Amino acid sequence: MNTARVLIDCKDKKGLVYKISKVFYENDLNIVSNQEFVDKESKHFFMRSVVEGDFQKETLKSQLTLALGDGANIKVIEPAKKNIVIMATKEPHALGDILIRYIDGELDANILAVIANRENLKGLVERFNIPFIYINADNISREEHEKKILEELKKYKIDYIVLAKYMRILTPNFVKEYEGQIINIHHSFLPAFIGANPYKQAYERGVKIIGATAHFVTDDLDEGPIIAQDVIPVNHRFSWRDMQKAGRDVEKIVLARALKLVLEDRVFVFNNKTVVF
Amino acid sequence: MNTARVLIDCKDKKGLVYKISKVFYENDLNIVSNQEFVDKESKHFFMRSVVEGDFQKETLKSQLTLALGDGANIKVIEPAKKNIVIMATKEPHALGDILIRYIDGELDANILAVIANRENLKGLVERFNIPFIYINADNISREEHEKKILEELKKYKIDYIVLAKYMRILTPNFVKEYEGQIINIHHSFLPAFIGANPYKQAYERGVKIIGATAHFVTDDLDEGPIIAQDVIPVNHRFSWRDMQKAGRDVEKIVLARALKLVLEDRVFVFNNKTVVF
Amino acid sequence: MNTARVLIDCKDKKGLVYKISKVFYENDLNIVSNQEFVDKESKHFFMRSVVEGDFQKETLKSQLTLALGDGANIKVIEPAKKNIVIMATKEPHALGDILIRYIDGELDANILAVIANRENLKGLVERFNIPFIYINADNISREEHEKKILEELKKYKIDYIVLAKYMRILTPNFVKEYEGQIINIHHSFLPAFIGANPYKQAYERGVKIIGATAHFVTDDLDEGPIIAQDVIPVNHRFSWRDMQKAGRDVEKIVLARALKLVLEDRVFVFNNKTVVF
Amino acid sequence: MNTARVLIDCKDKKGLVYKISKVFYENDLNIVSNQEFVDKESKHFFMRSVVEGDFQKETLKSQLTLALGDGANIKVIEPAKKNIVIMATKEPHALGDILIRYIDGELDANILAVIANRENLKGLVERFNIPFIYINADNISREEHEKKILEELKKYKIDYIVLAKYMRILTPNFVKEYEGQIINIHHSFLPAFIGANPYKQAYERGVKIIGATAHFVTDDLDEGPIIAQDVIPVNHRFSWRDMQKAGRDVEKIVLARALKLVLEDRVFVFNNKTVVF
């Protein structure tokens, strides 16, 4: 008895659900859950099914490919722990939240290592018996620093890299190496504030709400496909440092929520946006 | 070119999606949207599809019945305005909110009449050219009062009755006449407070959150299947009357949200709970 | 027995609360409620007290001025209905919500008139026995249009102008005439989207949250001091028109909340931000 | 230069703010922040001020007592780390969240020890160099178990006991020993569900919102004064175990928020409710 998550997306056309469910039916599979969506603007079809039964992953994939023709993206994924590496700088809230969930068995993941450009989180990480790799960024170029990180990353077979308040900008070169595999969390405001110290700008504008956005990293800084967002209320009694502290709670919860969605293969990326089932 | 909302629920078994989508495929229908859910506890299957194409509603329903066998609840609904009657007492917030949405064309409904046991809302309702029926409850029994209401209701072909802060309890007899067709809104608290003046009890307990629940009415007072809920924060500065006032905003928004879901045929009721697509 | 709202703001220094409460004490006033705040960055003091007793407003103000010296902004406001004019274009949701609250006695205001640059809201407004003034903007310059509006506005003694989805930009000249008296509502996003059709941009980015901001209008378009904000969740199933519709609920609630705060004299403006008690 | 948090509550009467601020003024103190509230129902006055200056705590307290007369509760508290003990059972989410905040320096507290009736959290706690005291409850009476816990607690000078998902009911005897010093977190629902497995009951009712309540522990089980509450949305796709998991995030955030408020001396308890500044 196998279980698989089947993820399909392709140009929308008539009969897709029929053709896919026919393959499931002929394999005598049980559909545990099933969600579809058609993006009307782009006329694109998305489907995520969890199926159970006596089947071979590769055979099932071939049959689905045959049924749908070329041009369909088809993944048949066995539910299994994914391998992740966390990158951080110095703040423990987002990293620590992931670590506690990790030992609670809440995350379907192996944390292979934590890489940081500061040393202060070493104690925390090693308490959880996870390798802590300190790669100092002082006095070297961004490219040199990333080269060192990439050397470490290459030692692992990585599914996802989680930026848990990693405070440095990644170069397009780095992003290309792990395209669609890097998840970031950043603060968000209504309205948005661009440039240095956005919390101070938000404070000066007197915003009443602050938030956080978890997204895939693309070349376009903080502009990748959004996975999850949330907000909390603030008021005039909050200094900008208070806002920053209050923001930590929403940052860590939103990052964890996004990570969980990704680990459960619930997120499609298409045209710089996500479909989340 | 027809459009229909197809709602199906039945005992879960293998091949349901296949059999249903086969009927759609063989009728050359376009699936505009499609959502399924299987309740694991009760092993019950729910599906809502919006389909487009050249078909006859009755024929489609027959074909689906043939495909699924007895025991499946199948509805093929043409998207059309539903007929509703609103019942109210004296507060204008929930009623008024529906009226404004009504003239904005936001509700897919005809408001046939407003029935109230007080007279003060007459002016408001008649401004919208909707019949206002005042049925005084003074000095008569609950049964006599309901009998008069039922006489008025029988004049109309009604899809749903919306209790927009109708402050009287309905008898089982009344509820049976419009089973599954009556939507109510009531305040909700964490924790709940039972008995007289729950706002005062909530105030005395110092709750930090108050809410509202929209639900179908069953014999079990305020215990019918929940359609929508929401909350707002309060604090010690709120008197119980302030809480009551603040609660109005969440009551009206939640009732309107529930009404919209029902008018779009998005709500299944099963075992005293709802599946909302 | 009089009641007054006393609003004071001035440069922070020692003894302010003492000096103010001494005046209240010597007048044998009862302090019904009292809130203070010191903005640490700007070292500015804010205080709002509601006092009851046997006093003359002008005398009390003089005594407070004497106690605090020059440079203190002191207002002694009798709680009374404020006079407001609403400006709208064609959408009824924000306007209608205010009208329903108005007849419910929830707003401490007289609505003197509704001015619109489209004619379709006339029926709605006149149902509430409020003058509807239609001022067509077609084929005339912005300045000419505003001149006509100002002519109408000059007929009234206005405390506040509420832009209930008035879809035209006001010129600095207009804003100057009613500085600090104009309240606007606009949609808000995380991140923000600037330019044409922000809902479409938000849709294309796949945002998971949309919101609304109520603010005072300044010359800087949509950048005036924020009074209130709120958000609602959305997801990939929302088209940009769905987002726009969903946004209406949060727009109307946030505008009404801001209006209520302003009518109760709870909002200080200082340095392009608000202190809201 | 000293700093103190001054907390005063007493029967409301005229001149309280004047008399208190006069003492501050005559001591040449700077009022850093100041909040007051009068509960209209109980006619009780609450005030929390943070003052800076050159003063003796005991002298200031005497002067305030003299100014206000008997019957006023006056506390002059030096801002300092409070001593807390955490009690837990087996779930790591609430405990772990506190531990991460602790090493981040976010909590103004010393965690003296963690006491648990299960052993599985030992590894987690000891990673943070905090004593873990395992007190098995098997085969002994509730009184015997609590006696052992009290013996351990008596070794410390404790300000607050935090029940971080401690799953046993405390006896009135235990509660009396630490009256007003025990903080608990429990799940909350709209409507509430009483008895065994409330998550299962909430699931069966199909609730759309679940929440958490942090409160002081009194003899009346889960009915003590509420400090903080929050909620998250759920839907029909959540099994009751999913609800329970989702509830963890809101439980830990609400407990941490309540703990922070208590550590900053922001919470008054009066008549089974709180005033939170």
Main sheet: strands, sense, barrel of chain A: 7 strands, mixed
- What is the distance, rounded to the nearest whole angstrom, between the alpha carbons of the first and last residues of chain A? 24 Å
* Overall geometry of chain A: globular
Q: Helical residue percent of chain A?
A: 25-40%
Q: How would you portray this structure in words?
A:
4 copies of one chain form a homotetramer. Chain A has 277 residues and is α/β, with parallel strands linked by helices. Chain A has 2 domains: 76 residues, Alpha-Beta Plaits (2-Layer Sandwich), CATH 3.30.70; 195 residues, 3-Layer(aba) Sandwich (Rossmann fold). Helix content of chain A is 32%, strand content 32%. The first copy, chain A, has 8 helices and 13 strands. A 7-stranded mixed β-sheet of chain A has the order 7-6-5-8-9-10-11, sandwiched between helices. Chain A has a 4-stranded antiparallel β-sheet with strand order 2-3-1-4, covered by helices on one side. In chain A, helix 4 links the parallel strand 6 and strand 7. In chain A, helix 1 packs antiparallel against helix 2 and helix 7 packs across helix 8. The model of chain A has no long low-confidence stretch (mean pLDDT 94). At the A-C interface, helix 7, strand 10, strand 11 and strand 13 of A face helix 7, strand 10, strand 11 and strand 13 of C.
Lay out the secondary structure.
4 copies of one chain form a homotetramer.
Chain A: E1 2-11, H1 16-26, E2 30-39, E3 44-53, H2 57-68, E4 73-77, E5 82-88, H3 93-103, E6 109-116, H4 122-127, E7 132-134, H5 142-153, E8 160-163, H6 172-177, E9 182-189, H7 198-205, E10 209-216, E11 226-233, H8 240-263, E12 267-270, E13 273-276
Helix pairs in contact in A: 1-2, 3-8, 7-8
